[in-house]
Automatic annotation (TrEMBL):
<dbReference type="InterPro" id="IPR015424">
    <property type="entry name" value="PyrdxlP-dep_Trfase"/>
</dbReference>
<dbReference type="InterPro" id="IPR000192">
    <property type="entry name" value="Aminotrans_V_dom"/>
</dbReference>
<keyword id="KW-0663">Pyridoxal phosphate</keyword>
<dbReference type="InterPro" id="IPR015421">
    <property type="entry name" value="PyrdxlP-dep_Trfase_major"/>
</dbReference>
<feature type="domain" description="Aminotransferase class V">
    <location>
        <begin position="59"/>
        <end position="338"/>
    </location>
</feature>
<protein>
    <recommendedName>
        <fullName>Aminotransferase class V domain-containing protein</fullName>
    </recommendedName>
</protein>
<dbReference type="Pfam" id="PF00266">
    <property type="entry name" value="Aminotran_5"/>
</dbReference>
Amino acid sequence: MKKSFGREYKKEFPFEEKYLPLSHGSYGAYPKALQPIIDQYRQRAEQHPDRWNRFEVRELIEDNLKRAATLLRCDPKDLVFDLNASTAANNILRSFPFEEGDKILCYQTAYVNCDKTLEFLQNYKKVELVRINLSYPIEDDDVIRLTREAIERENAKESGKIRLCMLDVITSVPGVCKPYKSLVKLLKEYDILSLVDGAHSLGHVELNLTELDPDFFFANCHKWLFTPRGCTVLYVAKRNQGFIHPTVINYAFQHHPDPTDGSTFKEEHLPGVVDVIPFLCVGPALDYRESIGGEEAICEYNHQLAVEGGKLVANMLGTQVMENSTKTLTANMVNIELPIPSTVKLSDYEITRFFMKKSIFEHNSILNVYKNNGKWWVRLCSQIYLELDDFRLAGEIIIKLLKELEQ
């Protein structure tokens, strides 16, 4: 009989006994059940480095890509591994053949590293960034409307049209879901390539890349899927594989004038001399998740806990959860408004650091605090090793720190 999710599962992760992990979405965590597998692989790698690196690891990588492809519902031939989401974004954006004057559509809620990569392209490839401002909480219909209006507005100009759009499945800050399926469909109407940042998606929400059919997609496995850091899957549709090369070029590089020529795509993205063991833990992580109830049960518990926990903390603070009328913003991360008075004379950076350092070093937890649309919020993550009382503890920590901040 499987035990119920909650604090009992905290023992299955290598956390400090009194640590209250409220930000699983930042760095993830893997269960102790994976440690013997990790140790076994590490031992094999050192027993015969040549056999391991030249032959054995390739087959193991492909096996784990096949497991990831089953979860993503796509062809494993369209998947490769990368170290993290930022690297995957750079592989796509820095190797794609943008021309001077090309436009990239993006949102101000893009993850900072990805956004900085766009800034890099703006300076080095002379592309133009078309930013859409989203003031959360916002309705999904308004996200789609603002996107369509931006496309129509740019297409009406004499300058170049939009070549690519970068969008999220779930944004990092604020930690909310985007109507990514409708957005990808909208982009196809205008012949705009879609780059979908799914950093928080795998192990968090149900995905079907065959049905979605994005041009590019990447997702971390170490955030919500329970693999060690860092492990990311990068998907490139066959029609675009000739365009994409890793940021670190290897022996297999070939220039492909034809974007559909993916003959070297897999070989070019084989990892060099790096720690590939996190890549080999996708299968074991999925086995563990299946043993405790499976994807649907895990996501259902986490979502319900996020909704109930967010409501509890908001009631304790006398504020609100960041949500829209159709309740589509919250998956397994919930954002709660913080009642920080305007009389606090610290900079935004100082307020953010205050909550982060105090929560870590004085309360053995973590509070991700940020400013959005003129208000202060905290992002809390649910997970199978947490329960409602942990959110109550989070609320108590927040109340203590608010009092300290006012003083």
